[in-house]
Amino acid sequence: MTCSWPIVFLMVVAIAWSLVLASDAPGSAPAVSRELRTDLVTKIRIGSATRDGVAKLLGRPWRTVHYGDCNAVEYQELWEYWGHDVTGSFKITIEFDDAGIARVIARTVPTGAIVVLAAAPAPQSSHQHQGKEPE
């Protein structure tokens, strides 16, 4: 089976455009990525760092995950960054509370091992019961 060159050319252009558009999709890796510096990750102040502060420090995340209202006790937004060092590739995950404050930083390696690098207690809820606990 032979293909004429205009069809092949159009197929190549279509594939190239789909790759360009996919690279700019929300949550995808930036088209021009910069190396994640682990020394910058250690500068994130858990319990006080904001989304804007983390974005200024580390840049745009590789992926963001929003859980919406799945469970109000758990953190609702995660930012993920990819990096590598002498041990191989790893993912840094930063969890934000509803106020946009960083609460947890974890490192995950391809084998699935997760190490919590830093964590802050959840903020006190404004809803507290007074008096005797239920029996």
Highlighted features:
135 residues, alpha+beta, Beta-lactamase Inhibitory Protein, Chain:B, domain 1, five-stranded antiparallel beta sheet, 3 helices
Structure description:
This protein has 135 residues and is α+β, with helices and mostly antiparallel strands. The protein has a domain at 30-119: 2-Layer Sandwich (Beta-lactamase Inhibitory Protein, Chain:B, domain 1). Helices cover 23% and strands 26% of the residues. The chain is built from three helices and five strands. It has helices at 5-23, 38-41, 51-58; strands at residues 63-66, 77-85, 88-96, 102-108, 114-119. Strands 1-2-3-4-5 form a five-stranded antiparallel beta sheet, with no helix packed on it. The longest helix has 19 residues, at 5-23. It is globular.
SSE order and pairing:
Layout: H1 5-23, H2 38-41, H3 51-58, E1 63-66, E2 77-85, E3 88-96, E4 102-108, E5 114-119
Antiparallel strand pairs: 1-2, 2-3, 3-4, 4-5
